[in-house]
């Protein structure tokens, strides 16, 4: 599956968030495909925020908070998967963020 691409602009020293919709009750969650490039960004936290709506399936957002460290460009790749599965399905949903740091 071709990843959806997004662009983020941040300033060195500032924090920025990436929010990805999910449903924790399904066993799926968003994860970074590989660690963030520690030269440019640092993953400060990762939490799941439930939706205010009272619906079955507990929809919400996986929230990733990063700190931009220095000027440059890096890419953050996310995949929506069940962490306990050994193999990643070819049709797994993917999101790609290009981060430009000023």
Structure, explained:
This protein has 102 residues and is mostly beta strands. It has a single domain (4-101), classed as Sandwich (Immunoglobulin-like). Helices cover 0% and strands 57% of the residues. It has no helices and seven strands. The strands form two sheets. Strands 1-7-6-3 form a four-stranded mixed β-sheet, with no helix packed on it. The chain has a three-stranded antiparallel β-sheet with strand order 2-5-4, with no helix packed on it. It is globular, with a radius of gyration of 14 Å. The mean pLDDT is 90.
Q: Give the overall shape.
A: globular
Poorly predicted parts: none
Which strand order does the major sheet show? 1-7-6-3
Q: DSSP helix count? A: 0
Using only CA atoms, what is the Rg?
Answer: 14 Å
Which class best fits the helix and strand makeup? mainly beta
CATH architecture: Sandwich
Total count of strands: 7
Strand content: over 45%
Tally of separate domains: 1
Head-to-tail CA distance between termini: 31 Å
In short:
The chain has strands spanning 4-10, 15-23, 29-32, 41-50, 59-68, 72-81, 94-101.
Task: Describe the SSE topology.
Elements: E1 4-10, E2 15-23, E3 29-32, E4 41-50, E5 59-68, E6 72-81, E7 94-101
Parallel strand pairs: 1-7
Antiparallel strand pairs: 2-5, 3-6, 4-5, 6-7
